Amino acid sequence: MEAKRAYMNVMTTNGNNAAFSSDEAYGYTVKGKVSRISANSESGNTFYYMILDDDRTKLYMAAYTISEELPITREGDTVEISYIDESNGSINVVKFDNVDFSQEVSSDQAKKDEDKKTIIKDSDNKVIEVDPEKNEEEWNSLTPEEKAKLIKDSKNKEE
Predict the structure, then answer these.
(1) Residue 25 contacts residue 8 (beta carbons within 8 Å)
(2) What SS3 state is found at 52?
(3) What is the tens place of the pLDDT at every residue in 46-104?
(4) Which CATH number does the domain housing residue 44 bear?
(5) Alpha-carbon span 65 to 114, nearest angstrom
(6) Dist CA 111 CA 159 (whole Å)
(7) In a designed cystine with 96, which of 9, 16, 67, 119 is the match (CB 3.0 to 4.6 A)?
(8) What pLDDT does 58 receive?
(9) What pLDDT, on the 0 to 100 scale, is given for residue 80?
């Protein structure tokens, strides 16, 4: 996992696509208040560990290369992060924005940011962007027959 995380971070930092295994991964974007944050340096690489909104069931990890705002982020700051959840307990941050800190962005940088793909938005990867509220609305709009068919199809895929 450490090697995969390092690979994803390097590829993202350099504006390249990071390839995933044949399994699908799920990409989420959340906004919340930092309850705890701490940095850990290993072999010359710094990783930041965060808890948002006192939710101790999720520990977000971000490499220092993800954002220059990480080192200045403090408890109480509102942040927006995109992350990959590969259903194995690790939550790897791939995009980080400290909403409480706004630095003026040059027009050149804004253009680069606009052109740059993120792992979650990159169609070459098998990352499915998830919006729980939208998914719940869609689910609730289905008939019982449609729901049963989706569940059956999902079970057939697993076999």
Answers:
(1) no
(2) strand
(3) 999 999 999 988 889 898 888 889 999 999 999 999 887 766 556 888 889 999 887 77
(4) 2.40.50.140
(5) 18
(6) 45
(7) 67
(8) 87
(9) 94
Alpha-carbon distance 19 to 11, whole Å?
9
Q: Which two tokens stand for residue 27?
A: 């990409």
Amino acid in position 150: L
Token pair recorded at residue 103: 């630095």
Q: What's the Cα-to-Cα distance from 45 to each of 10, 42, 64, 101, 157, rounded to whole Å?
A: 11, 5, 8, 24, 39
Of the listed ranges 25-34, 103-112, 116-125, the one predicted with least confidence? 116-125
pTM of the model: 0.57
Q: Answer yes or no: is 38 within a domain.
A: yes
| HSE-CB for 131 with a 13 A CA cutoff | 4
Structural domain of 82: 2-130
* C-alpha torsion sign, points 135, 114, 9, 58: negative
Does residue 154 sit within a domain?
no
Pairing of strands 45-52, 25-42: antiparallel
Q: Would you say residue 153 lies in a domain? A: no
